[in-house]
């Protein structure tokens, strides 16, 4: 199927659209259009029946009220962050092509540092770079001949692509693709409504086939954005081939139940990695998708370089660059690792898939190349743990493989943070982006996964130490420590598990638990039975409190409204089932608002029996079930029903 033509093409009949924001303001200044009510009537008349206008950022999207095309307002943070990342990516890439981008509202670039100290060398470098400005400039909304070619593989309403065209400078073209004909038609309407038809092209194709056809070196896209409803696994193979050399690949995963350990076998079938239930499941999900991307890219002698990887709300989002190099691909195996997780105390150990060493005998004198000529690869030795956990005596779970290298490029993240904090009015979620990226820059990049203070305390059944005191104890012991953006109570540290449990033993001595109530086979009993090998100091240190916490940045915001999270999948007939909404309302806060009235316990259709109509407990077992409510039964009636089922079987 050919790409869908926009409404401005001569072969396509023009559709009557609402006036654009620019046209509306122009009409408002005309004496003939001075009547505001008349303008409002004209705008409403221009919309199709059941259609509304959704505004986000600089875009205004004509959106059907029915759920025929998917749209989730919760993802505004995702779209804002993507615009910010692509802008900085375009700034770096187009500077090599002699193009300077101009962002509206952006002042002179100032590097934001979370530390109080200033680096004069960095300031001199900024001045030097600013002195050599390219002659060609690119602004938002204008087509740049040497600009970026962007593809949004699953565009739905086209909101993200329209925002790219209106807010990201230095673009040559934006292709908004969706397999749904209704979605592709809506994309064309929105492109014309926002006045970006010269940049944005609507396409109605299978996303994988479209990317497979653009695998040629001269046809590849500079930026590919994949934000599917659920798993992106089926699109990754085509995406790593269709992105240009050094291009940007943006991927969203919303199937967190699979990636967080609920279905490890399903995770393996989709991403080639086994997920496990653990406190660090959200960071592990990030490392699983990075592993999957790198593995699929390696098939085509390509490898990835993560720029930014974040776990937000109910989804994860990764931004990676893709390069080609047979020599560098060989080093990918040493970047993957298995994880051994104790089911009792939660201690974990990483096992690299391979190890690399410098082969000095085959290397020319004075030439040091890591991951290339002169590097020798060998199988890893292990495992790093015994049959039982050395701390609690429980067994280990095996998860992975996963990406074990840094998941962020801190210099790039610092550039994005500087741009967002220097121009806060550009995005509606600028405060949250600043808080999130600030935490990312503070993370220990060479320490995979994390512990949580509450889980450590829960294991030995003691009260939870304050976060600052626990971090201070690790610092006093000579270890590095940081927080994590993926979890509020997370602690990333290079301290071994033995040091963590020694600190918890010292905390328990000051806050003793009732050991007589502990089972001798419990992890708490075995951990507390060992004397600590160090004397922990819980005096709060100044460097224990990170700058993002001192500045009270928005790091973990609360849900702003009810039913916050994934929305219902778009349906061809439109609308959302009323049963689904009723189920959501019933399950919302079900643990907080427990049902106390017995009459509400069985007010839903029974799946096993017909409605109980007589006190003699006579049931007729058939293949169909009634839709009426089942009466509340006593304990004796339930026993009788169970017996009836056994007899009938």
From TrEMBL:
Belongs to the class I-like SAM-binding methyltransferase superfamily. Trm1 family. Residues 1-41, 575-598, 612-631 are annotated as: Disordered. It comes from the Eukaryota. The keyword tRNA-binding applies. Residues 583-593 have a biased composition (Basic residues). InterPro entries: SAM-dependent_MTases_sf (IPR029063), Trm1 (IPR002905), tRNA_met_Trm1_C (IPR042296). One of its GO terms (biological process) is tRNA N2-guanine methylation. Keywords: Methyltransferase, RNA-binding, S-adenosyl-L-methionine, Transferase, tRNA processing, tRNA-binding. Its EC number is 2.1.1.216. It comes from Sparus aurata (Gilthead sea bream). SUPFAM superfamilies: S-adenosyl-L-methionine-dependent methyltransferases. PANTHER family: N 2 ,N 2 -DIMETHYLGUANOSINE TRNA METHYLTRANSFERASE (PTHR10631), TRNA (GUANINE(26)-N(2))-DIMETHYLTRANSFERASE (PTHR10631:SF3). This is tRNA (guanine(26)-N(2))-dimethyltransferase. One of its GO terms (molecular function) is tRNA (guanine(26)-N2)-dimethyltransferase activity. It catalyses: guanosine(26) in tRNA + 2 S-adenosyl-L-methionine = N(2)-dimethylguanosine(26) in tRNA + 2 S-adenosyl-L-homocysteine + 2 H(+). The keyword tRNA-binding applies. It is an enzyme of class 2 (transferase). NCBIfam families: TRM1. GO terms for cellular component: nucleus.
């Amino acid at each position: 199927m050919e790409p869908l033509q926009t409404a401005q093409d001569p072969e396509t009949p023009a559709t009557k659209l609402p006036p654009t924001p620019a046209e509306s303001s122009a009409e408002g200044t005309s004496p003939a259009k001075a009547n505001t009510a008349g303008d409002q009537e004209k705008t409403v008349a221009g919309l199709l029946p059941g259609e509304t206008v959704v505004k986000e950022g600089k875009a205004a999207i004509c959106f059907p009220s029915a759920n025929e095309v998917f749209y989730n307002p919760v993802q505004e943070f995702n779209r804002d962050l993507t615009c910010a990342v692509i802008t900085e990516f375009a700034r770096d890439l187009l500077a090599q092509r002699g193009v300077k981008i101009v962002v509206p509202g952006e002042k002179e670039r100032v590097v934001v540092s979370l530390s109080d100290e200033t680096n004069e060398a960095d300031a001199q470098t900024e001045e030097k770079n600013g002195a050599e400005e390219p002659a060609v400039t690119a602004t938002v909304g204008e087509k740049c001949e040497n600009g970026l070619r962007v593809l949004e593989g699953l565009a739905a309403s086209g909101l993200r692509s329209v925002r790219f065209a209106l807010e990201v400078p230095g673009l040559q073209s934006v292709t908004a693709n969706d397999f749904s004909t209704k979605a592709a038609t809506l994309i064309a309407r929105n492109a014309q409504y926002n006045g970006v038809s010269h940049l944005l092209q609507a396409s109605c194709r299978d996303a994988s086939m479209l990317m497979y056809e653009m695998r040629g070196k001269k046809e590849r896209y500079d930026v590919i954005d994949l934000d599917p409803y659920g798993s992106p696994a089926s699109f990754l193979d085509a995406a790593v081939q269709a992105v240009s050399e050094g291009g940007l690949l943006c991927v969203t995963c919303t199937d967190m139940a699979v990636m967080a350990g609920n279905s490890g076998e399903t995770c393996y079938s989709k991403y080639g990695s086994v997920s496990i239930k653990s406190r660090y499941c959200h960071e592990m999900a990030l490392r699983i998708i990075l592993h999957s991307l790198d593995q699929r890219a390696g098939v085509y002698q390509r490898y990835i370089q993560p720029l930014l990887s974040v776990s937000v709300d109910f989804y994860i989002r990764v931004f990676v660059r893709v390069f080609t190099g047979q020599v560098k691909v060989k080093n990918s195996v040493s970047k993957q690792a298995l994880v051994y997780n104790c089911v009792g105390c939660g201690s974990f150990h990483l096992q690299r898939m391979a190890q690399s060493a410098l082969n000095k005998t085959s290397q020319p004198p004075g030439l040091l190349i890591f991951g290339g000529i002169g590097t020798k690869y060998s199988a890893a030795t292990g495992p790093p743990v015994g049959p039982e956990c050395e701390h609690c005596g429980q067994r280990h779970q095996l998860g992975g493989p996963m990406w074990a290298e840094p998941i962020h490029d801190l210099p790039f993240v610092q550039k994005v943070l500087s741009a967002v904090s220097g121009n806060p009015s550009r995005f509606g979620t600028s405060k949250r982006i600043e808080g999130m990226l600030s935490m990312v820059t503070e993370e220990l990049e060479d320490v995979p996964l994390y512990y949580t203070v509450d889980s450590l305390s829960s294991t030995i059944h003691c009260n939870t130490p304050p976060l600052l005191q626990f971090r201070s104890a690790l610092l006093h012991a000579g270890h590095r420590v940081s927080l994590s953006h993926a979890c509020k109570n997370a602690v990333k540290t290079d301290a071994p598990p033995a040091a963590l449990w020694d600190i918890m033993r010292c905390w328990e001595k000051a806050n003793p638990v009732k050991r007589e109530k502990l089972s001798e086979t419990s992890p708490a009993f075995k951990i507390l039975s060992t004397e600590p090998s160090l004397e922990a100091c819980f005096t709060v240190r100044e460097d224990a409190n990170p700058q993002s916490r001192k500045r009270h940045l928005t790091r973990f915001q609360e849900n702003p409204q009810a039913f916050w999270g994934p929305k219902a999948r778009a349906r061809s007939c439109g609308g959302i089932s009323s049963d689904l909404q009723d189920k959501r309302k019933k399950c919302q806060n079900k643990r907080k608002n427990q049902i106390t009235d017995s009459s509400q316990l069985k007010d839903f259709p029974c799946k096993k029996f017909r409605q109980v109509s007589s006190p003699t407990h006579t049931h007729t077992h058939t293949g169909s079930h009634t839709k009426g409510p089942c009466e509340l039964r006593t304990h004796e009636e339930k026993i009788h029903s169970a017996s009836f089922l056994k007899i009938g079987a």
